[in-house]
User: Fold these one by one.
Assistant:
Number 1:
Amino acid sequence: MFTLPLYFALIPFVVVVGYVALMSFLNIVHIIHYGATTFVSFVVTFAFLVGAAGICFVTYNRLLDTDWRQPVELNLVPTGFSDFGKFNSPQP
Amino acid sequence: MIGSIAHFHLQPDEKVIMSLRRHPIVFLAEAAVIAILGLATVLAYFLIVWYQPDWLTGPISRPLLVLAGSAYLLLVWHFFIARFVDFYLDMWVLTTEKILNVEQHSLFSRTVSELDLAMIQDVTSEVRGILPTILNYGYVHVQTAGEVKRFVFEQVPNPEAVRGKILQLVEEERRRTVAAKPALDQK
């Protein structure tokens, strides 16, 4: 068993966000380069950006009160899925 | 529409007759699947509320669930714009001289090909299925002389009318060619 601070969980999340941001940017560049002058592409691009911003905003809001420094105990031997919600900081 | 066509090099006297994309229902069907994938997070939320409510209050499980749900939704949302780009950048342009076929296979794979109307031998339209019949969309196959490969307009609205327009333009092109030939012979 070993412990890691909770902020380590942000690493895969940041990787996903970076990937989505990069690919979305490239997709929007494609739309602008090949057909931006249409109303439809503008509406869809705008809706996409609003949706992505909304997801990020809600995520940020939900995680505001999280203590990212609290340690997480990781047990390499599985103890059962139902223990997931009972994680607590290790007692000093 | 004009912005898309501006990328193609047309002859000075060449006019765009029509530009076609797949029928919007094709993208709407994909968008419905993406919406279902997105709504799976709502289902997952209620399953957790019913079976494992502790997960939503745990000091570690809650942020982990929020991060996982957010990452999943962002990926699904990205899938939406990727599918839209694929749908929107596929197009067929019919001009007085040729047919342009633009296919966006993936983000980094795009094919643009063109076919002179004079090369066309046969045009076939095809509507197959219940939804295509109701909404009147389907395929238009353009067979060229001496070529095994055919140009295919995929899932375009009103394929019968498109076929008729192509045949009309081919006929006009042939008349122009025949009319221009004596003048060239005299030179």
Number 2:
Amino acid sequence: MSVDIDTVKRVARLSRIAVDDADAERMTGELNAILGFVEQLNEVNVEGVEPMTSVIPMAMKKRQDGVTDGNKADDIVANAPVSEDNFFVVPKVVE
Amino acid sequence: MTLIDTRTPDPKRFISGATGDWEIIVGMEIHAQVTSEAKLFSGASTTFGAAPNANVSLVDAAMPGMLPVINEVCVKQAIRTGLGLKAQINLRSVFDRKNYFYPDLPQGYQISQFKQPIVGEGKVTVSVGPAKDGSFEEIEVGIERLHLEQDAGKSMHDQHPTMSYVDLNRSGVALMEIVSKPDIRSADEAKAFLTKLRTILRYLGTCDGNMDEGSMRADVNVSVRRPGGEFGTRCEIKNVNSVRFVGQAIESEARRQIAILEDGGSIDQETRLFDPAKGETRSMRSKEEAHDYRYFPDPDLVPLEFDQAYVDALAADLTELPDEKKARFIEAFGLSEYDASVLIAEKATADFFEKVAKGRDGKAAANWVINDLLGALNKAGQGIDETPVSADQLGAIIDLIKNGTISGKIAKDLFEIVFTEGGDPVAIVDERGMKQVTDTGAIEKAVDEVIASNPEKVEQAKAKPTLAGWFVGQVMKATGGKANPQAVNALVKEKLGIDD
């Protein structure tokens, strides 16, 4: 598997990372090197092996249904560049 | 998903275009908010209408290092809903990340279930109608799947000229996305399906079904085709938030597609919005590129697993579902399908009816609940949970008719009094002298008086027996409506010498 420069640009866009053409060019090479490295794993036969989801087999931890958190709106918006009345305020996003 | 046509094209559902008939194909995705105290993966409250960002934990705000821990009740609610939809419950399901950027999604991804949902295929039986002749048509709508996912926050765009305001109170609230198969063939069927689904969820107590508050929202996939032909290209109408709008959105979208196709055009697969003010759908400015959610299993969550005994225990505790209740009402109380349908639509109404009907005539109880109580509540803009007339009070009124204490006509007045003023029906009848006069002597006296003072009418009635009704009316009037109508009728005829 390898990626071309258009794929790199598209993935960057989907990730909202600004990448100029020179960077994209460089990253294409770097990403392909990484992919090539990972590709070696294909040599292992994993036929019939379930993907590992946890290092130790364990049941999913569950919580009781009770309100144990919240009421900290000041903390929640504390790091927001702009806020008003505890709303986050962001550049308009409506279509 | 492979699309399988499970329905036989029926001309009565076709809509005619300029070049012939068309058939509408609809599938729906319903987002139903899970009824729970806390969110799906955090301990913040799910209460509607809290102050901005008050119901937000650091998990919901996606602060670095926060980890999701699932709320067990949300899992149980999803399983119970699956059981109510007669669906396959998957003992192992997996949470995935659905990646996209939007200001009201602080994680940058929604935790959802993609390849392995908690609930698989099921079905809902939907009663469509009544038609003009009062009949109902039963259709079956397949359920493709149900999965658990997080809700996003809410953006408000009308607070500032250049900025959007974001409130994360809804962020992380548990949703069930219920996906139907494309088995729906008309706007009426879609409305009936959504209504039925809402009824089932409310019976189960897994979603409050409150569409005004956004607890239930529907995405509607609409396409048209020549009857029995290949499925056409569909458009998805997002976030339709009432049963009525679902109907309108389908009608207008189908007409739009037919107009394009009949002009030789083709349909672009796209996402559209329904504008209730204009009654039509419009394109959401199409994204420059198709969605690419890059789903992958959420590394923060191991697969959700439980055993069959866990499911069986929930199944054993399941409430009686609307279909079963309807069948029982028809069978046990001799109700018509229509009456039974009205009574079971809301569980509270069904429970109320059962209390009234206990030890009484089921049909009489149904008539009083549907025609009088629901009618009066509707007029007063109240729901069954706010009824001023209790089941015991209504039962007492029915008993008073049954044992001949009051006439059916007086009973209506009595109901009115109990509805507006309250009180014990038996005591009211006593205090206000509403008892039916069954004392033949008293009735006879009243009949004699009316006959004596109307000699001309007596002559007319002898020639034309139907005029006896006039005498009955006069006697009822003279006795303030309290005379037993059958007794009056018999006496009038006897005195006038009219044979039955």
